[in-house]
Amino acid sequence: MPAVVVVHGGAWSVPDKLAKAVVDGVKMAALDGFSVLERGGSALDAVEAAVRNLEDNVTFNAGHGAVLNADGDVELDAIIMDGRTLGSGAVSSVKNIPNPVSLARAVMEKTPHLLLTSRGANLFAESIGMATVPTDTLVTANEREKWEEHRSYVAGVTEDFNSKCAHDTVGAVAVDSAGNVACATSTGGIRNKMVGRVGDAAIIGCGGYADNSSGAVSCTGHGESILKVTLARLILSHMEQGSGDTLHGCILFLTNKQFHLHAFFFPVPSQGNPQRSLHSWLCSTWASVCAAQEESSWCLHQDSGQLNLLQ
C-alpha cells in the first residue's frame, strides 16, 4: 500500500506577504509527516507529527499564532482519529498547551473518554506531565494587533472570511503502508469568539473523521456551518457509496442554498490515492506527499478562482 500524507493550512485567502511562509509551512509539515511513514510509522503518528509542525509555526492559526477570543485569550481545539480502530481523542478550549493535537491523542490513549475541555483538559495535561507554556507565549504581536482591529465577532467573521487578514484551522490526513488511515485537525477558532466557544475542529465527524473502510477527512472553514451538517462524516458517507457526483451536488447545495457552508476539506480514500475535493469560494493552501508516485505536490490559493501550483 503506497503511503500518503496530505496537509492543509486553512480556509483563508493568503496575503502576498505571507505566501512564501504559508507554502513553506505546509511543505515542511507534509514532509515531516511523510518522514514518519518512511520510517515505518503509522498514519496516526504521521498526522500528529504534521499537525504539531503546523502548531509550532506562527503563520497558522493553531498552537503558536492562534487567534484570540473576545477576552483576548487563546483557546485551542484539536482532534485526532485512528481509522483502524475508530479510536478518537479531542480537546477544546485549552490555554497553555503548545501542541493540543498531542493532548488529544493522549485523551484517546490514556482515558476512557473522547473529549476533554477547558480546565479538565488542562488538569489532565498536568497529570500526565505534558509540557505547558505560559499562554502569552502562544500569542504573536501580529495577532494582538489584528484582535485590536476586529473587536466585533459578527463583523470579524464576515471580514475574516472575505479578506486576506485571517488565517484558519489546520489539519492532516494520511494512509500508511498497512492501509490504515488517520486524521488530525487543530485550531485557535475564530477571532473574537465568545469565551468557551467550540467549533467543529474538536467534534468527531465534523472537523475530522477517519475509517479504514472509507478514508480520512480533515475540514477547515466556518465551524458553525460545518457542525450543522457533520461535514467530515457526510463526505465519507458519500465516498462509501461511490457517489462522487452526488457529493459534488450535495456540497454545492449546502454552500449556496441552505447553510452558507464555507469549508475546505481533504478526503484521502483508504486505497491511498489523495483527492482534493470540492471547496467553496474560500481559499486554502495544501501539500501532499505520495510514495507511489515518488513526488510531492504543493498548492497555493491566493484569490478565488486562481490556483498556483508549486513543485
From TrEMBL:
Which principal EC class is assigned to this enzyme? Answer: hydrolase
| Reaction(s) catalysed by this chain's protein | L-asparagine + H2O = L-aspartate + NH4(+); Cleavage of a beta-linked Asp residue from the N-terminus of a polypeptide
**GO terms for biological process, alphabetical:** L-asparagine catabolic process via L-aspartate; proteolysis
Instruction: Pinpoint the site Cleavage.
Output: D168, T169
Highest taxon listed in the record's lineage: Eukaryota
The residues the record assigns to binding substrate are R197, V198, G199, D200, T220, G221, H222, G223
- State one molecular function term (GO): beta-aspartyl-peptidase activity
Tell me the keywords, alphabetical order: Autocatalytic cleavage, Hydrolase, Protease
Q: What is its EC number?
A: 3.4.19.5, 3.5.1.1
Question: Residues in the active site?
Answer: T169
InterPro entries per the record?
ASRGL1_meta, Ntn_hydrolases_N, Peptidase_T2
Task: Give any Gene Ontology cellular component.
Answer: cytoplasm
The record's similarity note reads:
Belongs to the Ntn-hydrolase family.
Q: What is this protein called?
A: Isoaspartyl peptidase/L-asparaginase
